[in-house]
Structures are given as C-alpha cells and as structure tokens.
Amino acid sequence: MTTVFFLFLLHLSLGLLATLPFVPDRAGASYFKFCSAAAAFMMTAALCLLWRRFDVVGGPRAPGGAAYPMLLAVVGASLAFSVLYNRARHFGWRGAQGISLGAALAAGIVAVLLGTPPEQRVLVAATDLTSILLLGAAAAAMVLGHWYLVVLDLPIAALRRMTALLLVGLVLRGIVVTAALMGPAHAGYEDARLVASWLWSPDGVFVWMRLLFGIAGPLSLIWFIWKTVEIRSTQSATGILYVQLFLVMSGELLAKYLRVTAGLPL
User: Relative to the CA of 36, which of 2, 16, 22, 82 has its CA 20 to 30 Å away?
Assistant: First the structure.
C-alpha cells in the first residue's frame, strides 16, 4: 500500500502544480501559495512514505526498481523547486516563478517515467500523465471555486477554463483506460467481463468500481458544473465540484491499487 499512496500523492501534487499556469494572476498570490504549499506537503508525505518503507536503497518491490535512488532524488528536487516557487510567489520574485515551477514539473515528470515498468512503459506513462492532469484539474477547480469568495472580482472565465480542463482530463483519461481495457494489454478486461457475467472476480469488482467512480460518475456531473458556471453561480458549482473531486480521487486511488496489486494499469 505504500506504493499506492506514494503514486496517488505524487500525481495529485504534480497535477495541482500543472494547473497553475491556467489561473490568472487576479486570483492573487494567496491562491498560488496555497496550491503550491499543498503540493509541497503531499510530496513531502510521499517521500516520507518511501523512506520509511524502502529507506534510501530501495529493494525489489520499490517503485522504479533499480532506479529507485534516482527516483527518490528527483522527487526531492521537485519538492525543493515547489518550495522555491511558493517563496517566489510570497516575495514577488517574478523571474523565479516560471523557472521554479517548470523545474518542479520537469523533475516530477522524470520521477513518473522512472517509476514505469519497462515492459509497459508507454501505456503506464500515458496512464500516469492523464491521472496527473485529471487529479490536478479536479482539485484546482474545487479550490478555485472557493476563491470567488476571497477575490470578488475574479473573472468567471477562470472557472470556465478550469472546467474545460477538467473535461479534457476526463476524456483523455477515459481514452487511456479504454485502450488499457480493450488494447493489446487487455488490462482488467477479463476480470470485468467475469463480473458482468455474474461470476466472482475480486479484481473485476474493483475494475468496475474504478470505472464507475473515476470515469462515469465525474462525466455525468460535467454538464451541471458547466451550467452553474455559465449562470455565475460559483457556490453551486463549488458544491458539485466537491462531489466531483471525491469521485475522481476515489477512482484514481482504486486505479493505483489495481496497478500495484494486480498489475492492471487503469
């Protein structure tokens, strides 16, 4: 379970950082500081989980295998740059903001690629990158919805843009999951088929839960979010985004569990 929560925390933190360029500066420094601080906190928790379970040398079950020490180092680098970005926002160092954010994301992506198994590198990398986008968009949209109570003149276009990004993340995530289920890997297809045929399969139950909670549920809410944003009802939109975030996080946590325990990159 250590690897499950490490992947979840790393993807969520990188996703939050990746959405920051889509938010206008009119949201205020407090928004960017809050999101980057949350990302840094989750990265710290992810690193602590790895250090407590695998120390600094790793082992056969450590993320990245033989590349575990390098993975640990680049996650630490991403954390350091995230803290630097947070301080750059606090003190108004405009020149350092873009550089530190870009470096944090670049180091994080390297860590993600190091953690992919060689035999399924393309599929798992696509799974991880779309997971980062979806988690980041869902979390950032919910947080941004609250910021309309903090910054009263924040343009509604910001939340509309984040809702569109959330839709893009869901569509791309759905395409990758479909490719994993139906493509050459057939990841989880047989397990899901058994459950659909009223036969017992523990992994199949989790596959269906992952699809319903992580893909179908969030997609069913997008229209309601978009309409509440269109009528500028930001409080209603934020309420729906709470449910959206819960469903997305549940689905992605189940996806990490299936990947680690059953080898299904969903």
Answer: 2
